[in-house]
Amino acid sequence: MTKPVHIAFEKFEYTIPLTKIVPQRPLVPEHRQTAKYKQIFQSIKAIGIIEALVVYPKSPDEYLLLDGHTRLGVLKELGISEARCTLATDDEAYTYNKHLNCISTVGQYFMILKAIENGVPEKRLAEALNVDIKNIRLKRNMLNGICPEAILVLRNQKVAVGVFPVLRKMKPVRQVEAAEHMTAGATYSVTFAKALLAVTKPELLVKPTPKPRIAANSVAAQEMLGMETDRLVKDLKTIEESYGKDVLTLTVCSGFIKKMLADSQVGSYLSLHHSDLLEAVRTAIAD
């Protein structure tokens, strides 16, 4: 019988003084200069802490910090004396760091759009995310002119923001093709998008241009060719790895089918009710 899974933390949050929280590692000065630290700093300063710290109670006056070292450093720098905390039932951080999800570019767009629709000023969003207000406006209009099918293909990917203005120059059917090319090669750079645009047929462009679209020896063409070559090599390696197993499976299955067809009753039934299928199977397993 399967044992029930025990919850790794308490269901309620607690407000704990920062003086009672013991970090597992120091926050080095270099980390405070990173863009990520500055973004978290500005976010907490503008709207407060969103995700609670995760701590393990070692004693009534001492809590081991399992998750949230950057947040703790920001809170201390801002002069905040206490924080919301989730109490873990074991002193390990693996449970909380097992799945680290980075929000996709399309996901950021929908979050920003939802916040604006709910009345959050663009200026406050920019302050919370530590970006220029022009960046917020750029992301707000990022998917204008992009067809839903292409958005669906790219919805979970970290696509460069500059890719979407390039896709906007293509008609919907070509946008989908370009999105699929980028996904197949796991390449979402502006350079690659421009290379796809350059080799797009005029009839698939929003504003066709009669001039030559791309030079064969250009950097864009070489990058696109390199991406395509890498993809083909990966596909070839995958085929090589499964070839032996597939051949063995096919040999065993062919032998079994030949044995079945040798039975007069089976052969007669298939010949009477599925003659076209029978002929196709015999052709497929013929030596």
From TrEMBL:
Pfam families in UniProt: ParB_N, RepB
Top-rank taxon: Bacteria
Domain ParB-like N-terminal: start-end pairs: 14-106
Coiled-coil residue windows: none
InterPro entries: ParB/Sulfiredoxin_sf (IPR036086), ParB_N (IPR003115), Plasmid_RepB (IPR011111)
Protein's name according to its UniProt entry: Plasmid partitioning protein RepB C-terminal domain-containing protein
Source species: Telmatobacter sp. DSM 110680
